[in-house]
Amino acid sequence: MPTAQTRKSAITFFKNYTDMKEIVSSEFEQEVLKGGKVVLDFYSSECPPCEALAPKFESLAKLYGNDIKFLKIFRQQNRELADQLGVKSSPTLLFFDDGKEVGQVLTGGVKRKDIIANLDQLISEEEIAIIHDKIKPSVSEYDVMILGAGPGGLTAGLYLCQAKINTVLIDIALPGGHVATTHEVSNYPGFIEPQAGYMLSHNMSEQTKLCGTAYKVAVDVSKVDLDKREVILDEYETVKAKKIIIATGTSPNLMGIPGERELKGKGISYCATCDAKYYGDKEVVVIGGGNSAVEESDFISKFASKITLVHQFDTLTANKTAQEKLLANPKITTMLEHEPRSFKRDGDKIITEVEDLKTKEIKTLVSDGVFIFIGMKPNVQLFKDKLTFDQWGYIKTDEDMRTSMPDIFAVGDVISKKYRQITTAVSDGTIAAIAIAKELN
Predict the structure, then answer these.
(1) Catalytic residue among 83, 274, 356, 390, which?
(2) What angle do CA 214, 219, 220 make, to 5 degrees?
(3) What is the pLDDT of residues 112-140, one digit of tens each?
(4) Which listed residue (41, 47, 161, 275) is catalytic?
(5) Pick the CATH number of 138-251+376-440 from 3.50.50.60, 3.30.565.10, 3.90.480.20, 3.30.310.50
(6) Is 275 a catalytic residue?
């Protein structure tokens, strides 16, 4: 049960919301079901995604408030109603029209454009045109702009704000990067016991935020102009800076075989921490043989009853400790020298066709889900024609993390280097921040 202090904290957090009303469960029928056109935000205290949503919700309330009622409800003290409505996390936005729930349920790292799309469904085209005409471009300026809020970007933000340099962190998702979706981190210095990835990234983010770095997260990056050192967010806000740090990290590689894109998020996953819990007592196929595949297979085995790991080489490439743990796990079997050729759905099952690379025989694996861990690719699409890259597409930097363009730095997994770890990303962020601080001061 939330304490009085927690409740007070939540109220204080939203005290500036003059264009909306906060309700409790007993008011739901009158305010929502009989309230006409309504958007209802279930929020919690000590909730980073709620904090990321708050300024977007407030600004949209000022735009749409004459046509749509904006309401908030404190989820931690209205759990029964939340459960009745199927609300399982914070924040969650629900949209109602004359008592009927409509549109898309938005939860987690909610983006401004998705809220607008749902709000527009509630009003006429004429009203939409009038409101959209009121959305005026805005400009904000900083000393340093960091694109990406993983360990490298967060560390750079921490060092820069401690140097009293006006800094903003921008991310299309929530802070944390891949660490936030890693179930356990056992090799980060300073912690005797393994740390949950989401908590390690949360603590990094809170430290940087409390220091004073500004955050613009769960946004759409519409355009990046490295020459002008400016970025356009959500198609209306321009952010300018004297220097930019690129910390955009990497994304999972796709296999590029039939059925993969169609079944992504519908039985095929790239994140064990996100989705393993849905496979309790079920059978799973894991593709890959490196550290991620092997370590995540062990985690998935806490839920699944059986795991088949498929790897194209004759030996696993993960570190020896991880291999030994996997081979000792009775729930996991390995298929070495096999490679997937297609994915299909058959009812509730996923059919994975794999080829035996020695005999060329095609075999069929039937499972409830598939996890793919076959490496990563750098997120450099927005800078592709501007910077110098290595042969694998990673950004080249010097020892101070400078790129080939003046005033543009890069850190973390997106840069060309031998090892990509949380600790190396933190090191990169530190170096870039110190170099920038010296230049600006």
Answers:
(1) 274
(2) 135
(3) 999 999 999 999 999 999 999 998 899 99
(4) 275
(5) 3.50.50.60
(6) yes
